[in-house]
Specification:
single chain, ten-stranded mixed β-sheet, 2 domains, 7 helices, three-stranded antiparallel β-sheet, alpha/beta
Amino acid sequence: MKKPVFIVTEVLLSLLLAASAGTAAVLAADIRTGGAVIPPSVMDSIKKATGTDSKKPQSSQAPQESSSAASETASEEAKESEEPSKAASEPQSQEESSAAESSAEESRAPENTLDLQLEEPKNLNAQPEELTKLIKDYGYDYTMLGFDKFIVVHSDDKSGAEVYCYQRSSKGYWWDIAGTGKPITDKAFVGEKGVDFDIKPDSKKTPMGFYSIDEGFYIGEKPNTTFPMFEIKDDTYWVNDPDSRYYNSKVDGTDNKDWSTAEHMIDAKDAYKYGIVVEFNTDTPPDKKLASSIFMHIGSAPTQGSICVPEDVLKAIIEWLDDDSRTYIFIT
């Protein structure tokens, strides 16, 4: 997978020296480059400054068993999201059935129709207020957003989230493709235990920070996009065994199998009909103490660490992406 550089070390260090202790701590803790993390000594100082040390397990505790943050329950999430209501299974008369189908079609129409602003708006001459506030709150400015498309996942205090999608214009202004100040969905979910920095396996948390978006995946029919996508087949696995040389990566087939646990991706056919790989802990080699398998996939319930959104939303996001643009996701 590609590992584009987001912010060089010299810029990070200068910002850390120039910023106040509080702002610098938040800034350093949030910056990630394709899964690369701040050195442990710096992170310890950051966590003390931001009061996040209390979340860190005591060193005397045994480490958690390593496994994928998403692999154990992706299928369960999909089943929950696709589970039919009991009322729908009750016998109905033909008249009632027709009326119900008509009503269902009407209620589904708005959810499956996204009115997105994909072309550059005319006379665009200002930055989005909510994006400006967000990046300022985290100590950034627009000169640091050296990419073309930007996905922001803004989680609440629990496991719900909103997703915003921004695109940069030819003049350097950004616009919200879902409409000014509007999320592309407010029905997203993150890990059932929320978000945090440098998540461990089995933490049931989603990693905070900036990550590149370099590839997606699909089962069945490929979405209409030039964005790099791989097809999930019967022999596609995502390895979550930290003792494997393939940890946190896709493998086709088992000829060179050296793992004891891996997600058989096609088993999550509803959740993984469409998906995007979040480049968390995807350096070579990855950190085996950090979680694996962080995706944006289909779903409607809290996850084991990934981000899930409605199917029509994810399909629209993937078709908005392309191979000519650099894309980052900011989980906050």
